[in-house]
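Issue 218. Parser rejects a valid record. Input:
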Amino acid sequence: MRDLKLTPRWLRLFLLILLVTGVFFRFFHLDYKIYWHDEAYTSIRAAGFTRQEIDQEIFQNHIIPAPYLLKFQRLKPGSTVVDTINSLKIEDPHHPPLYFLMARFWMQMFGSSLTASRTLPALLSLLALPLMYALGLELFASTTVALFATVLLALSPFDILFAQTARQYSLLTVAVIGSNFLLLRAWRLSTWQNWSLYTLSNIIGWYTHPFFVLTVVAQGTYIFLGQTFRQENRQSLRKNLIYFLVAIASSLILYLPWLVILVTNRQRVVETTSWTGDKVDIWYLLKLWLVSFSSLFFDLDFGFDTIWNGIRSSLLKLAVIMLIAGATYLVCHQTKRATWLFIITTILVPFLSLALPDLLLGGRRSTVSRYLISSYPGVQLAVAYLLGTKIISQRWLWQGVTLLIFTSSIASATVSASAHTWWSKDLSYHNFEIINRINGSSSPVIVSDIGDEYTNTGDLIAQSYSLQDHVRLLLLTQPTNLENANLNLFLSQNNQLLTFRPSQQILGALKQNKKQVLPVFEPGRLWQIKNTLTQEVNSKSTNIRSK
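Output the parser choked on:
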């Protein structure tokens, strides 16, 4: 505990206040941001529904009130955990069931409101904080560095954002940090209890997300490069290596039931993840890599809409990347080989495992920030080492740098907490504006179908959390039959007919039936449907009056 005594009391108090602030932001405005597509699917799976049965019920050319869709966010009557597992097994086999089963039990106890659904990941995210402290202490033997690492995690805009997202990513963060800590501990204190705990953490990781494999690969690389070539105490190293391999094998054997499901349904996995193979240019990759790593410390969702926003955002994010690079260099320059090699492999192996295929084969796997969760603890630990060592030796300069970093994180969390949407909402980013436009319409009827990309079901259900009672949905079957849908009847009744993210089938059918679509909110693909003939008459009337 000698290091703790060397840490000034004011610094310990300061870090404690920041830690409490980070915990506060995880629960502040939990229900403020829109419930987005993937969160709606979390509730669908946990409730025991499949998308197929939902689609068969709602896309029937019938008018339904928007709140009706919320029934698919509540427990399916008569369902059990088997229905939750089958929903994933049939339609989302690449998502293991652990978090979804936890969400189901949570739903049974606390209901399915937006706040209730997001409280679970927020609570789970708190488990990562003591584990990060333990990992920092194990790695650097410094309570100061461990405290900085914990506070950086607590205040991380990225981690706060996904702690408030009803998905499994906060649990994945817990599994990644816990597995890394327990590996280092078991390697140092090789007991069956420690290796058993490491095995258990890996089982949790496997059943949380398939990309936990990136952490295991990084750990294997670290063990191979850092330990097997050491000459001293070869017998102890050999024993630890055997324990490590047995732990990995044991966790995989216990993961085998879901691994079989994954392999058996690989075609479904390919279909649902095919978007990650979309071709993008190098600038797109670089831009999203900047967003991913800089959002650990700074994230104001500037976007890249304009040249000025793009330049300003890129420069600030580049400054954060330079900080990370400098911190990593310092770790490599000042710490022992086992320490810096762990940091390097933890950061680079998961990132390069996704980035190299994108560069060589095409795709955008590495641009999905949540897929890089295995890399982030290493980044936070490196920066924690930089701040923890420099703030004592070069007090005034690094006090200023530290204050700037934490101020940026708090400012980011504050702005994010007051926003209704954020870049992490992905394809649902514009839903808040879409909901406002629809709710502000007089007698709106929303025409939609399953969509060309089969994403409309999730987004329509997500929107139903905020759509008002007067909003009605006309959800069409495929192939589209507008005569069965009675569009002319709705138009004659002075309803405002809107179409959300219409498929090419709908657009073709509307054109064939002399209907015109006019943009209401083009970024969100929200259009108004009007009779072409009515438009022509109105145009002629306007011309006559002007003459």
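Fixed in the parser; the record now loads. Confidence is low (pLDDT under 50) at residues 535-547.
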